[in-house]
Design a protein that fits this description.
heterodimer; A: 360 residues; alpha+beta; Rossmann fold; OB fold (Dihydrolipoamide Acetyltransferase, E2P); 2 domains; six-stranded mixed sheet; five-stranded antiparallel sheet; 23% helix; elongated; B: 298 residues; mainly alpha; MetI-like fold; 78% helix
Chain lengths: 360, 298
């Protein structure tokens, strides 16, 4: 078990800087997820922790010891690859026991340890098979087995569930969490899927264009995003962002949307701001359907109705803006209907023109 | 009407194919029949009896056994050299991003494109020069009475080594291309996984890369073996001693003997000459198919 510190790490590929001074920490035994869109540098960062890519600048430390120049196999790290990278010419047992075989561990001991790992991962029946004779989920488990048999201090996962179908992915998510609870290794997990990040992580590091956009507990990220990037990346469906200005003419400052409706911004310290143009962020669950009365902040036309069973999402059009609203599953609305919406001020997020949250 | 027309077209096609097949097979049929015919002649005829005398003669008279051995040694060594050098080179060419990669790959294929006959004079001059140097070295370390037999092994002209190197150089470009392409299809993840598992450079090659690349190496080795086995010009140019002669040259000389051509002996020799190439193909066919149709199946 180990603490990982990433300190001001940079990575260049030729003239292109892909990691631009990233710092964060993963505490001992923590499940930390690196999340971000394609090309944000998350896999590169993971490969640097593994030792498969060198660090251009900055330090990577495990338990306070700088490991920049330590060869991969001496770092006490195991990695599960996106492609699983199971050796096709070896059986499941040989794949799992390969690292022990290289260390010249006696055959009987390898067999015993492979047996234990196989039991933990429900692979006992498959030990004599080749990877080509396994299903996607079974291959995934063999790849995990190959990682945990080394009893590593840190396990790295590079988008391990991206090759599985949706239902298997849900099942494997639960299995990974169970394994983490049983074995308690420090885990760094890379994914572009924010649902995976939210469901499994102790902390999430959101990366954008080679920088850390925000690094926090999942709920903290969800409730208090520091930028429009994090606000729209975390949460499914995404947060609504409405363009407008803050109007100080009344006693309470008001958000005046570009589409001609307004909502008071009570209880916020906006005295020091004199912003012309802002974004109001609000999540679909913080908007309610109301009658055509004083409670309503705006009205619009339903464009699309997405029924998911337990809940329904409405795409409500107001001028050039479309707002996503979450309502109960059995609502009797059709596209073309007019609805009245009330926005919950507790769910407001304000972002400035530089897309950063304010008041900070 | 349509059906009748179709049938007629089909019959014509099959007829044409049958004639072509017969045309292709006739030489083989002649070789097989003549090799066991006590009175084999230039003309195709059913043997009046069956004899193994010609095969016995191949192995007892006229150095046939020696030619066969020489061919196996030189072509076998050539195949080994090409598979090892081509394996390592093909891997390096697949993994490098150096600017010279593409010019290099096209430059080496030129060696294959140019007719070997056009290069034979400068090549011979070069090999003769290298042979002089090697001779000086050999004479300085080997007693004078065994210098000649030492040069038959490591000489560049009229020695095994020279012929093996020339044949290898001719076969290497194609092997490099095949193996490089095969490694291109082999994800880097396997090596990285082995690196994370603690495998050193040799273990990664021996435990992971070679087993993964076996079909590519096998296909390259097969094409090298067949190519070098069938080569005529190089053994003709670089080997002059009777005891170092290779099978194709022996076959050619047997045919050249004016007025006294022994067709039975000649065809037994030809049959033996064909055999290793056919066996090699049979053994490595699986690799060939796997290499040219797919690559790694995880």
């Amino acid at each position: 078990m180990a603490t990982i510190s990433i300190e001001n790490v940079r990575k260049n590929f030729g003239a292109v800087e892909v990691i631009k001074g990233v710092s964060f920490e993963v505490a001992d035994g923590q499940f930390s997820v690196l999340v971000g869109p394609s090309g944000c540098g998350k896999s590169t960062l993971l490969r640097m922790i593994a030792g498969l890519e060198c660090v251009t600048e900055g330090d990577i430390k495990i338990d306070g010891k700088r490991i920049n120049d330590v060869p991969p196999h001496q770092r006490g790290i195991a990695m599960v690859f996106q492609s699983y990278a199971l050796y096709p010419h070896m059986t499941v047992a040989e794949n799992i026991g390969f690292s022990l075989d290289l260390k010249k561990v006696p055959k009987a001991k390898i067999r015993q340890q492979v047996g234990q790992v196989a039991e933990l991962l429900q692979l006992s029946e498959l030990l004599d098979r080749r990877p080509s004779a396994l299903s996607g989920g079974q291959r995934q488990r063999v790849a995990i087995g190959r990682a945990i048999i080394k009893q590593p201090r840190v396990i790295l996962f590079d988008e391990p569930l991206s090759n599985l179908d949706a239902s298997l992915r849900v099942q494997m998510r639960a299995e990974l969490q169970r394994l983490h609870q049983e074995l308690k290794p420090t885990i760094v997990y890379v994914t572009h899927d924010q649902v995976e990040a939210m469901t499994m992580a102790d902390t999430i590091v959101v990366l954008n264009q080679g920088n850390v956009a925000q690094w926090a507990h999942p709920i903290e990220l969800y409730r208090h995003p520091r930028s429009t990037f994090v606000a729209t990346f975390i949460g499914s469906p995404r947060m609504n962002l409405i363009k407008g200005i803050i109007d100080f003419k009344e006693a309470t400052p008001t958000f005046a949307a570009a589409e001609g409706w307004a909502v008071p911004l009570a209880g916020r310290d906006l005295a020091t701001t004199d912003l012309q143009s802002v974004w109001l962020g609000i999540r679909p669950e913080d908007i309610r359907l109301v009658g055509a009365n004083a409670e309503a902040n705006l009205s619009g036309k339903v464009a699309i109705v997405e029924r998911l069973g337990a809940e329904t999402y409405l795409h409500v059009v107001k001028g050039a803006e479309t707002l996503l609203v979450r309502v109960q599953g059995d609502i009797a609305l059709r596209s073309g209907d007019t609805v009245h919406l009330a926005l919950d001020p507790a769910g407001f997020h304000l972002f400035d023109q530089a897309d950063q949250v304010f008041p900070a | 009407m349509t059906l009748r027309k179709f049938t007629r077209a089909e019959a014509t096609a099959y007829g044409f194919l049958a004639v072509t097949l017969l045309f292709c097979l006739l030489p083989f049929i002649w070789v097989v029949l003549a090799s066991v015919d006590p009175n084999a002649s230039l003309f195709l005829s059913l043997p009046k009896g069956i004899t193994a005398d010609h095969f016995v003669k191949v192995f007892t008279a006229n150095n046939g056994r020696r030619w066969f051995f020489n061919s196996l040694v030189t072509v076998g060594a050539t195949t080994a050299v090409v598979v090892v050098v081509g394996g390592m080179g093909g891997y390096a060419l697949s993994r490098t991003n150096a600017w010279w990669k593409s010019p290099f790959l096209y430059a080496i294929i030129l060696v294959r494109v140019l007719p070997p006959t056009a290069l034979i004079v400068p090549l011979y001059k070069f090999m003769l020069f290298a042979n002089g140097l090697m001779g000086a070295v050999v004479r300085s370390v080997v007693p004078p009475d065994s210098a000649r037999s030492a040069m038959q092994i490591c000489g560049f002209v009229d020695g095994y080594l020279g012929l093996i190197l020339v044949l290898s150089a001719m076969q290497l470009p194609l092997a490099l291309w095949i193996i490089k392409t095969y490694f291109d299809l082999t994800p880097k993840d396997y090596e990285e996984a082995a690196l994370m598992d603690g495998a050193n450079g040799f273990q990664r090659m021996h435990r992971i890369l070679v087993p993964l690349a076996l079909p590519g190496l096998g296909a390259a080795g097969l094409l090298t073996f067949i190519g070098a086995w069938g080569d005529f010009l190089m053994p003709l140019t670089f080997i002059s001693s009777a005891e170092l002669q290779l099978l194709p040259i022996g076959l050619f000389r047997a045919f050249q003997r004016a007025n006294t051509i022994d067709y039975g002996y000649l065809s037994a020799l030809a049959l033996l000459y064909m055999l290793p190439a056919v066996v090699a193909f049979g053994l490595a066919r699986r690799f060939l198919i796997q290499t040219f149709t797919g690559g790694i199946k995880g």
